[in-house]
Amino acid sequence: MKLPLPDTMAARALALLVVGLAVTHLVSNLFYATDRESALLTAGGGSVIQWVATTGAFADAVAPDEWSKVIAASNSADRFVTITDDPVVDISTGTDWRGAALQRELGRHVPAERLENYRIAFAPTRIVPQALSYWATQGGSETPKELILVSLRLNSDKWLNVATPVQAPPQFFSKRLWLSMAVMLIAVTLISVLIVRRMTEPLKHLSQAAEKLGTDVQGPAIPETGPQEVRRTAQAFNVMQNRIRRFVEDRTQMLGAIAHDLGTPITRLRLRAEFVEDTGLRGKILRDLDDMQHMVASTLAFIREDAASEPQATVDLRSLLGRVCDDIKDAGGDVELAEIERWVLIDCRPIALRRALGNLIENAVKYGEAARVSVRLEAGRVLILIDDRGPGIPRDRREGVFQPFHRLEDSRNRETGGTGLGLAVARTIVCAHGGDITLNNRPEGGLRAQLRLPRIVRTAAEPDKGKDAAVSSPVNAAGKYRFSWKTAGRDPHPVAKGRKMPIQRGLDTCLPEGRTTQWKTL
């Protein structure tokens, strides 16, 4: 099972840093707790060894019948003393690391020749019943859980036994540990967020520039800042972008020059064709020249579109589609635009996008009898659907129709098959906007062209109220007027200009429903 990881480099670096610091803090606290426990144990063992040596010397100096007084004087809340025939400390007691630490401490305080008279161990209180009973009778004194046991052989072969509680080490998982960890992690996280964000900012610029390069090779160079590796990457990216830009410009200039230069010989041939006496032959030559002239013009248009630098603007897609559909209707095309209930404001090159939409809808009308246009919204994207009632396109030929001068119609007649540049121009425009066009046959018959655009600025039923706002659109839904409106907490006052026709024709799409308007004709 793979652990879920943050999706961004900054988040991953921050998570790695925080987790690493938390683990380091826990491990260091574990070592600290272990060392502190060892220090408390050896300190307690050293003090009890010294006390046992002193008490043993005193016990050897008095008569055995005085030992009871020595024991009574020695017993206290933190010490239990007995004198027995056998040692309380068994040889096998305390074989863990704490017992070994006490043995080392014993060697530090007792001369080597007297070590055989001492036994020291670390043991739970429950294995020393006398000590357990003793602390149970001590009022207000809590029975210790663990003891340091020391047995000393007296000169009379009796054993002086001392049991003293071990000072409890601090709890590892204590409130203090969690508090210190929380304070450390919060402080480190706040500082790390600033540092990591600053370190990854150049990568964000690089990612944005790489994404934009696919739609606009004329974009500005990215700043060469950050660590050395990032600076080198940014520098290499800028060099690559300049090379691509020069390649595109050189190709465009070359093709444009070729297409332009072909115009002169075509014109000369047209003039010379007028001197051909055979009327039928002259007509064929002129038709061929017309085809050549049209192909040259189409090629120039395609090249101009590929290298276009029209500025972007925020427009209402509903109005833009309305004009395109109305223009085709005026030319006799069967076009139906489904109702779009809300404003869809997008960033685009309006003239270029209108041309792409026009090419797609005209193709649907020309080859599919009729076109039905609708709009869907998909999580930050807008999807324009253009359906027709034609025969569709075979699956293996759908991608080929986007190639320049590729035609499905085999007769090579420009009137029936066109020049094969319409869909190529449309895809070039849409790709320059960061979108794409796909073609699919519908189950009920006909072809569906799906045009996806990624940049939705805002969707709304009506403009914002109570604050300054401005929205512009090149055309209204009827396709007859340019208009703009501004509002500052009051009803908008549109300004429109166009042909002398009833301005109210486009009111339903130009302004939100229910607004009282005042129109000024220019």
From TrEMBL:
Transmembrane segments: 177-196
Record's protein name: histidine kinase
EC number: 2.7.13.3
Gene Ontology CC annotations of this record: plasma membrane
Alphabetized GO MF terms: ATP binding; phosphorelay sensor kinase activity
Location in or out of the cell: Cell inner membrane
Taxonomic lineage from the root: unclassified sequences, metagenomes, ecological metagenomes
Native source species: hydrothermal vent metagenome
Chief site of localization: membrane
HAMP domain residues: 197-249
InterPro entries reported for this sequence: 2C_sensor_his_kinase, HAMP_dom, HATPase_C_sf, HATPase_dom, His_kinase_dom, HisK_dim/P_dom, HisK_dim/P_sf, Sig_transdc_His_kin-like_C
Topology in membrane: Multi-pass membrane protein
SUPFAM superfamilies, A to Z: ATPase domain of HSP90 chaperone/DNA topoisomerase II/histidine kinase, Homodimeric domain of signal transducing histidine kinase
Keyword annotations of the record: ATP-binding, Cell inner membrane, Cell membrane, Kinase, Membrane, Nucleotide-binding, Phosphoprotein, Transferase, Transmembrane, Transmembrane helix, Two-component regulatory system
The reaction(s) this protein catalyses: ATP + protein L-histidine = ADP + protein N-phospho-L-histidine
SMART domains referenced in this protein's UniProt entry, alphabetically: HAMP, HATPase_c, HisKA
